[in-house]
Amino acid sequence: MQRFVEEYLVNLKLEQNRSDNTIHSYKRDIEKFVEFIEKFHINDFDQVTIGVITKFFEHQKKSGKKNSTSARYMSALKGFFDYLDRNNYLQENPFEKATRTQTSRALPVVLSVEEIERIFESVDISDKFGLRDRALLEMLYSSGLRVSELTNLKVNDIYFNEEVVKVTGKGNKQRIVPVGSSALGWLEKYLRESRPLLVKKIKSGNYLFLSKRATKLSRMSVWKIVNKYVTRADISKEVHPHTFRHSFATHLLEGGADLRAVQEMLGHVDISTTQIYTHVNRDYVSQVHKDYHPRG
Hints:
hpI Integrase, Chain A, mainly alpha, 3-stranded antiparallel β-sheet, DNA polymerase, domain 1
């Protein structure tokens, strides 16, 4: 079975142009499934049934795995079995019968506009790193970027006159995303007053956001920056960089934005991924009704 797994991982790299992080994640998840089915003396993927799949996800639930983790397993395994099916390695694809109701996704945590403002205001912009952090946080919220997209931005990816940013997303796919005037203002200030103090030409490689070592920021550094200011702002929600992306999408939809437009801005291939924010939006509307209607 390992041969099929390795072949699929090569396909992800060479044919689908997936990132190393994605490939590593898929490898880990598929191997977890293989380890599970081997306990049932299954040594051929053709022996996998919908019953075995159900037992696997039931086991994950009993083990305390989050819905988001189970959803990730489902995505990785479905992609793998679809590949096996396309290449005639299976007589029947059991995942065609598997439904995502087994891995219903928890709604993402979303910050309110007031909480976003509190985070922004908690940044001390009197030094070069504070100014960088304010521009970074504004950019996360203004354009809904993934962390990897943010850290890979180059200075020349920002088009100030057009008020857009060129983003390289999953699979090296590029898209153009609008940038708000507030974020552009802080970016200009950062580029003028802070980045020149951080940059070292050989190390910096024209990356937009730089570390203390003059290299591009790591994903972990962005996590630490976000955590720092969320703590300062005294926000008790579990907030990470992706929370700004969730908030970006939800606030757009609350304001009446078209779902397809939000899908394009987020870089989602499948609109069903974007639709989760409509559920968040409905929850928000329901809460507003309860809070403000005289008979709520």
